[in-house]
Each structure stands twice: as C-alpha cells, then as structure tokens.
Amino acid sequence: MSYQLELRHFAYFLAVAEELHFRKAAEKLFISQPGLSRQIKQLEERIGVSLFDRNKRNVSLTPAGLYLKKELEYIFNHIDFTVKQTRLIDKGNKGEIRIGFLGSAMQTVIPELLVKSNTKFPAIRFNLEEMSNHLQVEAIEKDQLDIGFVRLARVPKGLKMRTVFEDTFSLVLPENHKLTKETFRSIKQVSEENFVLFSSDYSSLYYDKIMSICEDKGFTPKVSHKSVHAQTIYKLVESGLGVAIVPTSLQYGFDLGVKFLEIPRISQKTLLSVIWKENNRNPALEQIKSLLNV
After folding, report:
1. Is 282 exposed, middle or buried (CB count within 10 Å of its CB: 0-12, 13-18, 19+)?
2. Which InterPro entries match (predicted)?
3. 169-174/222-227 β-pairing
4. First CA to last CA across the chain, in angstroms?
C-alpha cells in the first residue's frame, strides 16, 4: 500500500473504539460511514493486525485493538497537554498542574498547597477536579492528571503514593440529636440507628474502616443510604434519615443542620495520600512535590 499512516487514522480508530459503532462514530467525526470504514481498513492493513471483530450486530475490540486504544488515549492526552503547556510557557507561565482530589482534601491539604505555590511558584497554574479514588488512578495512568489526593491502601505499578495528612473520624448527627460532646462516649450509643455512609465506590478502604469502627464496638451498622458526596450525606442526616461517620476535617464549609462529634477511644485513623506517575514529564511537578515534602 502506498498510503502513509497519519494522526487522523488513529483519531478515527479511537472514535470507533469508544463508540463500538461505525455509524455513530462517523456522525461524531462528520464523515461518511463508508469513508470511516475505509480509513480503519487502511490502518489495519498498514500495521498488519485486526483491530475490531465485526458482525452484523456488534463491533468489539480485539486484544490488539484494546492495547492500541489504551496507548493512543495516553498519547493523545499527552499531545493535548503538551500543546497547552507550550501556550502557557509562551505567555510567561511555568505550566499547569492538573489535580484530582477527594472532597476532604479541599478542607485541608489543597488550600495550603495552593497558597504555598502562589508564594513560591506564582507562575504555575492549577486545574482541579473532584473525583473518586478509582477515577483519579485511571486519569493519572492516562496522563490526564499530574497528582491525585486519595484514600487507598495501594496503587498500581508505575504510580507512587505518599501520606500527606492523618485525620480522625467524627460522628455526624442531626443538630437536635440528644447526644452532645459531653454525653458522647462511644459509637455504640448509636448502634440502633440507621447509617448514611460514603459508598465503597468512593473508597473501599475508607468504607472498610467505617465498618471496622462499628464492629470493634460490637455491632454492624444498618446502612440505609450511601453516597459519594458529603453534601448529600449531610442533607440526609439533617433530614433525620440516619447518622454518618466522616473524616473530622470534612466538617467545614457546609451550612446544614448537623453537628459533628469526634469519635473517642478508637484506633482507626484515615490517611490522605498524594499519588503521581513515576515517569510524569511535567516539569512543574517536581516543584509542587517539593511543597508536599514527597
């Protein structure tokens, strides 16, 4: 074949790989379906592999196609980011750091980090997005984030993790609940109440710690509702639908009818960690890591 592979071939492949439907991918790309099929065929012939399994009803990726999709997502993300960094540097900035975080990190570590950076590295810009542990790990692997603030026991190979904040746990109660700071002695005092907890999807490690806090006191909590958002959990508690257990630092910044009582006499702590990719090439990352002492 005389044609050469171009970026468009890979862009077309990614569109089909994401949609797993040639017509929908063609509409997304604003080209004809026969034209798209021809481009994919050229790509397959040029590299000598089948990327899709096709029949009249379904389109699926072959193992080779799955590998190529993952690698191209990383490459295209890195190209987009590199172009953006180039523009920032041209304007006199030192580049951008993309941060993923759990909500509690915004109450503690991140504001302090941004203040320090603004003082020491004022030319670095930030892009912040709240997201779950799983999505942060995935985004860092795909080069969509530079660092993440998570609650995890371990991370995949190729990623680094360091603890940056240790927190206690607090019980969240409706404002008019009979328990007070003076009368609260043990989490067992609410063992008969419903619990509103962060979903295990938010952090399986965190969820397991909450369960162990209760089980250590001789009961298994009756979980009535789950959520990945603190605001939702507090609203449910305010409405009398249960009590909750959260990191103590997560009590600030909410104006709802709830109160927080730090849980006494428990061994469990919740650890907030920063994660990043070992081979991340963002030149601003080392400067930000130095502010976190990692």
Report:
1. buried
2. LysR_HTH_N (IPR000847), LysR_subst-bd (IPR005119), WH-like_DNA-bd_sf (IPR036388), WH_DNA-bd_sf (IPR036390)
3. unpaired
4. 51
**What residue has token string 């542990």?**
133
Cα 258–Cα 263–Cα 266 angle in degrees, nearest 5:
160
Number of domains in the chain: 3
Q: Is the dihedral of CA 284, 286, 288, 290 positive or negative?
A: negative
Residue 110 CA to residue 225 CA, distance in Å, equals: 29
Is the domain of 244 the same as that of 280?
A: no
In terms of Cβ atoms closer than 10 Å to its own Cβ (0-12, 13-18, 19+), residue 95 is buried
Q: Which tens digits make up the pLDDT trace of 47-99?
A: 999 999 988 788 999 999 999 998 898 888 888 888 887 887 777 677 889 99
Q: In sequence order, what are the residues at sequence separation of 6 or more whose Cβ sits closer than 8 angstroms to the Cβ of residue 22?
A: 16, 33, 36, 37, 40, 59
**Three-state SS at 74:** helix
Q: pTM for the whole thing?
A: 0.72
Q: What's the domain range around 235? A: 169-268
User: Which own/partner contact pairs does 86-89 have at CB distance under 8 Å and 24+ positions apart?
Assistant: 88/125
Domain stop point among 26, 41, 71:
71
Is the torsion defined by CA of 192, 193, 198, 199 positive or negative?
positive
49 closest CA partner among 32, 67, 23: 67
Other CB atoms within 10 A of residue 48 CB: 7
